[in-house]
Every structure is written in C-alpha cells, then in structure tokens.
Amino acid sequence: MEKGEISFNPEDKRNPSWSELSIISINLLRFLDSIIKESKFDNETHKDFLKINRQFRAIGFPMRTKLITELSINPSEPEDRVQRLVAINSILEFVDFVDNELSNNGSSYFDLEDLDDYLSMDKMDFLKLWYKRLEEQTDIIKNCAKQEAESN
Q: Which superkingdom, per the lineage (predicted)?
C-alpha cells in the first residue's frame, strides 16, 4: 500500500470518516493529474481508477446518505451540509463519468480522443476543468476532515 492510501474493505460497516474521504479525494486528484500529464488511460491506470472508485463509493455513499438524513431531520441552517453534499456528489459524478466511459468503450482503455466526439471543448481543457472542480470539492472535504479531527 502506498503512502497516503487507506485500506479498503467493502464489508466494513463502521461509520466512515471525513479524513478517509479526504485521503481518497486527494488520491483521485493525483489520478486525474496523471491522466492530464500523460494524456492516456491505459490498463494500469484503469486498475488504479477502479481501486479509487471503489474506495470513494464505499465511503462517499454512506456519507451522502448521512448528510441527506441530517438535512431531512434538521433542515435549519443547511448550508454547510448542502456544501458537503455537493462536494461528494461532484466527485461521484466524475467517477461515474469515467466508469461509464470505460463501460461504453467495452475495454479498459479510456481513449481521450473519444471526448472530442461529443464535447465542444478540447479534451485537455475538459479534464483540467474537472480537475479544478474536484480540487475545490476536495478542499471542502479536507476542511470537514480538519473539523472532525479538532472535535475528537
């Protein structure tokens, strides 16, 4: 296991933490940065993505459910929880996009040239835009992790 990565066990039913979600979000940013720099998505990169995808989903979905439940029970002053929910949903949207691309291509190779077929912007500009968006959402998650650590 590399430094900064957390172990993943889908059978683990404990409450996930913001710090775990923060680490996975940072790993996802590193992943996207490598795609942008290398302009390819090969089999090895695909394996890395699937690992990050499983980790984020395993923690992101329970956190999202918890936030939605909190909002339905106590709807007063929802801004902070809504901001956290948007952060999680944005990252889930990205992993879904990449996952769908892999499924639609029928292979483990994500050809960045395919993006030009249905996007009006350049593929690298598109990925850089996603990177900026994910970076902003990761900052929100990192702040949640910091608040969580301070309260413990």
A: Bacteria
- Kindly report, residue by residue over 58-86, the tens digit of the pLDDT: 888 888 888 888 888 887 767 888 889 99
Question: Residue 93 corresponds to which amino acid?
Answer: E
pTM for this entry? 0.74
C-alpha–C-alpha distance, residues 122 and 96, integer Å: 20
pLDDT (tens digit, 9 = 90+) per residue, 85-107? 999 998 888 888 777 766 565 45
Q: Where are the domains of the chain?
A: 18-151
- Taking the CA atoms of the chain, what radius of gyration do you get in angstroms? 16
Percent of the chain with pLDDT over 90: 16
Q: What are the helix (H) ranges across the chain?
A: 18-38, 43-73, 79-105, 115-118, 123-151
| Residue 5: C-alpha distances to residues 26, 27, 30 (Å) | 9, 7, 12
Contacts (Cβ under 8 Å, ≥6 apart) of 140: 83, 84, 86, 87
**5 φ/ψ angles, rounded to the nearest 5 degrees:** -90, 150
